[in-house]
Amino acid sequence: MTAYAIGNLHPKPVLDEEVFTYMERIQGTLDPFGGRFLVHGAPAREVPEGDWPGAVVIIGFPSYENARAWYDSAAYQALIPLRTRHMAGDILLIDGVADGYDPAATAAAMRAASGDPA
């Protein structure tokens, strides 16, 4: 099942050479794990609900295990300080949904588990 690394990053107004080095090298850390950028550093075009400061990064992986192995890899761990010294943010690793996912079936299972007979 596809998995994702998602970041909500808050870069400083002036970026440092380390950020450029990070960006130049990150793809090489993703390649062995099948990672590819789906969104890279884009500010939200529109926020119809809530508040979303920062820039969005979404990286797709073939599986959660690949995403976790990438994040834990020595190659990526060596790059992390180049980013974190220049931008704060939140990073998460998350599973996608399986092919054929049905939100109505999920709702029915949740309703049954809650004891709601509706």
From TrEMBL:
Task: Provide the organism lineage as a comma list.
Answer: Bacteria, Bacillati, Actinomycetota, Actinomycetes, Kitasatosporales
Q: List residues traversing the bilayer.
A: none
Domain (DUF1330) spans: 2-97
- Organism of derivation: Streptomyces flavochromogenes
Q: What is this protein called?
A: DUF1330 domain-containing protein
Quote the InterPro entries the UniProt record gives: Dimeric_a/b-barrel (IPR011008), DUF1330 (IPR010753)
Extract the Pfam families matched here: DUF1330
